[in-house]
Each structure stands twice: as C-alpha cells, then as structure tokens.
Amino acid sequence: MTRGDVHTYYEDGLWKNRIEGGVRASNTSVRRSDALSFGRTMARRKRVTHFVHDAAGDVEERKTYGPSS
Q1: What's the CA gap between 9 and 45, in Å, rounded?
Q2: Residue 31: exposed, middle, or buried by beta-carbon count in 10 A (0-12, 13-18, 19+)?
Q3: DSSP the chain
Q4: Is residue 20 pLDDT above 70, yes or no?
Q5: Mean pLDDT of 5-25
Q6: CA gap 56, 28 in Å, rounded
Q7: What is the pLDDT of residues 26-37, one digit of tens each?
Q8: What are the boundaries of each domain within the chain?
Q9: Burial 32-68 (b: 16+ CB within 10 A, else e)
C-alpha cells in the first residue's frame, strides 16, 4: 500500500474515508453509498488506490486510479 491511498471503512456507527498515513477521517457519512462515492472521487483526484472495507474491516474491493508504483 502506498501512503496517500484512500480507505473507506465503518467505525463507530459511521462510514468514513481516511487517507493512508493520516490519523483522522477526511469525512464521515451515515450512508455507505455516500462514503463510497466520496472516497472514489478522492482516489481519482489523487491518482491512488481506493480500498473499500466491509463493516467487519475486511477489504472487499480495491481499485487503482493512478499509475503503478
């Protein structure tokens, strides 16, 4: 995983997006679909990988939007 990748995950009753290497969520949402959309947009703009975690924390999807490192 590259520093700066985007992770969408569930924590404390909310769906969140965090940029890898950061300590806080970039944003939060009650709806998973909203968090996924925002996380995807963040990853596209940064040209990094978007990791989507299920509610248990397991990676269920991964999509790379930039060149391989």
Answers
A1: 19
A2: exposed
A3: --TT-EEEEEETTEEEEEETT-SS-SEEESSHHHHHHHHHHHHHHHT-EEEEE-TTS-EEEEEE-S---
A4: yes
A5: 97
A6: 17
A7: 999 999 999 999
A8: 6-64
A9: eeebbebbbebbeeeebbbbbbeeeeeeeeeeebeee
